[in-house]
Amino acid sequence: MKKVASDMLKIRTFAAHEWQAYKNIRLRALADSPDAFGRTLAEAQEYPNDYWLGRLSSESNASWDLPLVAEWDGKPVGLAWGRIQASRPEVANLYQVWVDPNYRQRGVGQMLLERVIAWARARNARYLDLGVTFADSPALRLYQRNGFEPTADPEPLRPGSALLGLPMRLDLTSNMASAEGELKSGRTIR
Fold this sequence. Notes:
Layout lengths: L8 E5 L5 H14 L8 H6 L2 H9 L7 E8 L2 E10 L6 E9 L8 H15 L4 E7 L4 H8 L3 E2 L4 E2 L7 E8 L4 H9 L6
Parallel strand pairs: 4-5
Antiparallel strand pairs: 1-2, 2-3, 3-4, 5-8, 6-8, 7-8
Helix pairs in contact: 1-3
């Protein structure tokens, strides 16, 4: 992995007025990595602008949602979405993780993941759950390196798909020491 130039990379939360930027990067992600997500590009392209606006403008869910954008020298190059359901506050979920192919192997995915883990812990979640395409991939290796473990057998990624998705979980209480060590190692998360 190439070293992250911390002055070049910024991880931040999308603001409500940035719905168009969120829409653009989400569509880029679906176009670039169609086998990585439960939704398809065709489905997402059909959503009206009100859908995209609504995803970011829900002020009542601000403490339950963490829509992140990774910017490299001001350019959006990645995204991730953390979510906690009010009915299950002990479980945080991670969705929509994607990094532009030109910025992979630079630590962007790791920093997005670290930001969601820190957010989930700050909200006292015990677990962080996600689904990943079941294949030998950089995404699966990223999650395994960070302590995620499978919670069930692989299942179809979406109805009618031959691709399989693997549900995984990180126990946020047992990995506290390793995460604190990573944050003390000098990695900056803005």
